[in-house]
Amino acid sequence: MKKGLVLVVMCVAMLFAATSSVSAQTPSNEYKATLEKMLEASGSMASAKAMVPQMIAMLKQQSPSASASFWDGFQKKWESKFGSKLAELYAPIYQKYLTLDDLKKIVAFYESPVGKKLGTSTPAMMTESMQIGQQLGMEIATELQQELQAQGK
Fold this sequence. Notes:
mainly alpha; 153 residues; 7 helices
């Protein structure tokens, strides 16, 4: 049980870890809204939002006495506010590298036919890429184990 909670905390920490380096200038509401629009259009937000039910499922195991209606309401609340919260936390990072005008141009790209295709394909490509990454990780671990055994360790 504690293992699942630690995993959830680590996922959330990794997701928001980059927020520690906040720029001197606070991003405007327009910047945050444009960033959220860009994250939605790029498919990045869909990939990030897919983690909410997974995190909730792990948290359910930590508090099995909570009712199903509690968990449904909690999940709906976070699904609705996750995007704006993510954009708010990411904004200082993006602002270090991209201007508001840059974001607007990126959004314009994602509103084009090829941009829409890329945006709708991104979550599936990320899922497939993660599976390949897991396979590669397993291959590395197997090879490491074999080499350590060959050395008698």
